[in-house]
Amino acid sequence: MTESEDRELRERFVRGDPVAFESLFRRHEAEVFRWVVRIVRDAGAAEDVLVEAFLRAYRGRARFDPFRSFGAWMRRIATNAALDQLRTARREAGWSTTDERTPAPAGSDPGVAESVALAFRKLPPKLQVVATLALVEEQPYAEIADALGLPVGTVKSRVFRAIRRLRSELTALGIRP
Amino acid sequence: MNDDERLAHLLRAALRPADSAGPSRDLWPSVANRMEARVRLSWLDVGVAAAVAVALLMRPAWLWLLAYHL
């Protein structure tokens, strides 16, 4: 598909054409899913987030500029939807200290891994997102900033705060990080 | 390995790996169904809108009360 055909597809999407929207969905679904699953770390939750994100995109299509990248716009919407999912999961889980869905990976010390996972889950969702993307997934700060719609400096500051809080939690649990 | 790298290593070991093989099913039908659901008005929505319209025609001063609550 040429650039002009691509742009025409995006323009049709903005006008509310469901066929164009399905084409864009099919084209970007896998990429958005891979991004979301990195944040929420659960394939089932990532599927729900993906559906919600594309719905938000459809509802907000009038704000999309067809001359810009649909993938980048979609990634930002999906990141916000994933953040909302983390907030909901946190509310539902409360301050529970166990999460049966997160077994320690093979090869790691189960006690330490559980404590680290616990300290991680205690982080506010907005710090969890940057900690996951920057420290675990090793994504560039610029890419994280773009996905969150934040300046790079804010992302760096959030990573710093996440590290400080993780250290403090782990020290309280008797682990020297 | 510095302290931050050590912490990142601990996190990678503690968190489940992100399984990014792809969605387990075709998700387009879920999106399409919810798109339709959002534009469909129920009889209750229509009834409430009609009742509000009639009430405002009979007592236009209630518009301020409605505006205050919106």
Topology diagram in text:
The complex is a heterodimer of chains A (177) and B (70).
Chain A: H1 3-14, H2 18-40, H3 43-59, H4 70-93, H5 110-121, H6 125-136, H7 141-148, H8 152-172
Chain B: H1 3-14, H2 28-39, H3 43-58, H4 62-69
What would your notes on this structure say?
Chain A has 177 residues and is mostly helical. Chain A has 2 domains: 1-94, Orthogonal Bundle (Rna Polymerase Sigma Factor, Chain: A); 101-177, Winged helix-like DNA-binding domain superfamily/Winged helix DNA-binding domain (Arc Repressor Mutant, subunit A), CATH 1.10.10. Helix content of chain A is 73%, strand content 0%. Chain A is elongated and about 60 Å long. Chain B has 70 residues and is mostly helical. Chain B has a domain at 41-70. Chain B is built from 4 helices and no strands. The longest helix of chain B is centred in the C-terminal third of the chain and has 16 residues, at 43-58. The model of chain B has no long low-confidence stretch (mean pLDDT 84). Chains A and B meet through α2, α3, α5, α6 and α8 of A and α1 and α2 of B.
